[in-house]
Specification:
Number of strands: 11
Radius of gyration: 20 Å
Mean pLDDT: 90
CATH architecture of the largest domain: Alpha-Beta Complex
Strand content: 15-25%
Structural class: alpha/beta
CATH class of the largest domain: Alpha Beta
Number of domains: 2
């Protein structure tokens, strides 16, 4: 293997989580050997992130530190794609723990790919709760698609917190859309799915990779109803962005108008369902209705923003 151009780069994009970052990077270094490159990309942190990164860089020259001052996870990930030396870039969140053999599974897959046109591969995600979750809480973040590598159908979902992109293909596909993904403290979604859809359209495949598992920390602050509904709202916004971005002219206006007419009724039905289901399933069914209603509200708000603001960057993202 060429010692100057590693086949694998591992990118950890981070913001204001110095203590968690230190633990995550240490875990990666425990598995990474030889010419594996590790990139730490700071997305505008105000804590000790730079000091933590400097410590690792001084101890291991293959750890490299970059600063993306513009707020946005997609911007940080695009910087990593540009600066990485590896053919493949594995993206990890800054609050994960690696299962034994995580990196070895990726390296084996990259060295002997089961198909020629693979551009994306990702592994399992288990959840590591900071505190016991409430009985009504149900997360969609966990992922395990079985013991065999498989090509996913169009739109098949991997988790961006444990996912690798073939760098040339990702750059050729335009990278991550900066309108999508987290922006500072505002949650955002679908940046990976959006890039994957473009890659699939270009003829590439997306694969599930067994054996490359992580445990993703679910922070205590995410285990309350306000946060869950805020996340659902922003998920709705991201869905609207994705559905509107490729529509133009009359088709764009007709789609937005039709959805704006139907969505309030849909949201109202879910609110009614949440009220009726409140006594059942420890509140889980009721919360599910509220989550759907919040997602629809975010969808409506983003459609309205797109209609009145177009694609202007001067229109601030909607928040709750």
């Amino acid at each position: 293997m060429n010692s100057t151009v590693p086949i694998v780069s591992i990118a950890i994009c981070t913001r204001n989580r110095a203590a968690l970052l230190e633990k995550t990077v240490a875990g990666v270094l425990a598995q990474a050997e030889g010419d594996v490159e590790i990139l730490i990309v700071d997305n505008g942190s105000t804590d000790d992130t730079a000091k933590v990164a400097a410590k690792f860089c001084a101890a291991a020259p293959r750890v490299k530190f970059f600063h993306e001052p513009r707020t946005g996870l997609s911007l940080a990930r695009n910087l990593a794609l540009r600066e990485a030396a590896g053919e493949w870039v594995i993206f990890l969140d800054d609050d994960v723990e690696l299962e034994p053999g995580w990196l070895a599974a990726y390296e084996k897959f990259f060295s002997h790919p089961p198909a020629e046109h693979i551009a994306v591969a990702g592994g399992a995600v288990a959840l590591n709760y900071e505190i016991p979750p409430p009985r009504w809480f149900k997360s969609k973040d966990q992922l395990d698609l079985g013991p065999a590598a498989i090509c996913l159908p169009p739109g098949g979902g991997l988790r961006e917190c444990n996912c690798a992109w073939r760098r040339p293909a990702a750059l050729e596909g335009g990278g991550f859309d900066s309108q999508l993904g987290h922006h500072g403290e505002t949650m955002g979604y679908h940046e990976g799915a959006d890039l994957n859809a473009r890659l699939e359209k270009a003829g590439y495949e997306i694969w599930w990779l067994p054996g490359a598992g992580i445990r993703h920390l679910i922070h205590a602050q995410r285990l309350n109803l306000k946060w869950v509904l805020s996340a659902a709202f922003n998920n709705g916004r991201a869905t609207a962005l994705r559905r509107m971005k490729d529509r133009t002219g009359c088709g764009r206006a007709c789609y937005a108008a039709g959805r704006l007419l139907v969505a309030p009724l849909h949201g109202g039905i879910n609110l009614l369902a949440a009220l009726v289901c409140f006594p059942f399933q420890n509140g889980r069914a009721s919360v599910a209705g509220l989550v759907r209603a919040a997602s629809i509200a975010g969808f409506i708000c983003e459609l309205a923003r797109q209609i009145f603001c177009g694609h202007s960057n001067n229109c601030a993202p909607a928040k709750i």
